[in-house]
Amino acid sequence: MKTTVLLFTVVLIAVLSECEMVKFGQLCSGNSSNRRRTGDRWGQGHYGARRGDRVHQGLDIVCNDGATVYAPFDVKLNGKVIVYTDPKKAAINDGINLSGEGLCFKLFYVKPDKYSGVVKKGQRIGTLLTMQSVYPGITSHVHVQMCDKSDPTKFF
């Protein structure tokens, strides 16, 4: 009997913890469900997708070039992200470090309105840069990467 009660308690705690997990709100105008980039000629957008000799360390959320990017929950803006060192990719070489809800994450390919301060859930962070100018035919997207490079999928 004690083993059954203990097992039930452990399962209940695990279920409650999963239910209370942070979920990202809408990131981009025109994509209220945070639809993920699947595959295109440039690759796939899921965490762990192969990129030649490296592995994709984020999750790509579909977003049209020039679309408004929103705060997924109340966030603190923690500075600029440099995505590339290649000058040929300068048109999309911007992003922002953010924290909120106990998470630290980065958004790539976003031109933020500002790099510091606080933004409330659903308020504008900035706009998606013109991915098509660097990667013609790609499914334009915001790349979401956790600061510790862990898999962000469970937050969507």
Automatic annotation (TrEMBL):
Q: Tell me which positions the record assigns to the signal sequence.
A: 1-19
GO function terms (MF aspect): metal ion binding
Q: Which Gene3D superfamilies match?
A: Glucose Permease (Domain IIA) (2.70.70.10)
The alphabetized UniProt keywords are: Disulfide bond, Metal-binding, Signal, Zinc
| Binding positions (Zn(2+)) | H56, D60, H143
Keyword 4Fe-4S among record annotations: no
The disulfides recorded in the entry are: C28-C63, C104-C147
What PANTHER family does the record point to? LEUKOCYTE CELL-DERIVED CHEMOTAXIN 2, LEUKOCYTE CELL-DERIVED CHEMOTAXIN-2
The similarity comment for this entry is: Belongs to the LECT2/MIM-1 family.
Entry protein name: Leukocyte cell-derived chemotaxin-2-like
- Organism annotation: Salvelinus namaycush (Lake trout)
Q: Supply the gene name.
A: LOC120062249
